[in-house]
Amino acid sequence: MDRLIHWYNMAVYPSIxxxxxxxxxxRALGAFLRSHRERLPPPPxxxxxxxxxxxxxxxxxxxxxxxxxxITWLEQGRDVSASPHALARLAEALHLAPAERGYLFELxxxxxxxSPVASxxxxxxxxxxxxxxxxxxxxxxxxxxxxxxxxxxASRLFTGWLDGDHDRNLLRFIFLSPAAPxxxxxxxxxxxxxxxxxxxxxxxxxxxxxxQALVESLAAQSQAFRTLWHEQAVLDREGGxxxxxxxxxxxxxxxxxLAANADIKLVSLVPMDGEEF
Length: 277
Hints:
434 Repressor (Amino-terminal Domain); Beta-Lactamase; 5 strands
């Protein structure tokens, strides 16, 4: 009976069950391209009566400087090679918005060669105010891992970084400040992980002069950073237990990414002993 009900539901509600099936990126890419091609207004010099909306495949191929066969096979979901630069021309011809362009490259499994460097200079005031609304240590990092906002609890916890008049860059604090090893338990392990996490961010902004300058400066001033950077380790930023010294305290760290700007991180530390900080 259960199997019969399942078959009935599949027949009556096919669109619902279709969304539950695994997505083939190549087919999803083909459907995405075809949909956006058909949304385009006809080219200004288009001749003849058009039976279908939008651009023809021939017109899109000509605008992108690629072959008609390549466009056809791409829309059909075939396993064809798509270089980042060809995809970039395709995105421009289709007039894709930034989110749509990012989706195109994600489906194609390629990195956008002209991905713009995000600017965090215009962080909304409401975002900057977030740490102040939290009752645990919290701070906001920009793309260079420089603290842009923090609360009083974070100032009390991160002595030598978020208190007083110090350099607010987290990497420079960890590798250049003598206060860091006295504050961070298992400093060697944390330093290794921090560099690997930062490299993941750096890899998405290879053309960012501010990040390049930061790496060069740290490598010149810190043997520890230079050694760890040359190890080429890459890790996603993860939460978990963080231990501090003098006094000994343990926290659970969580990192939230701003939807409007993935370079902005809100980091919070909840005491694991249940006490207020």
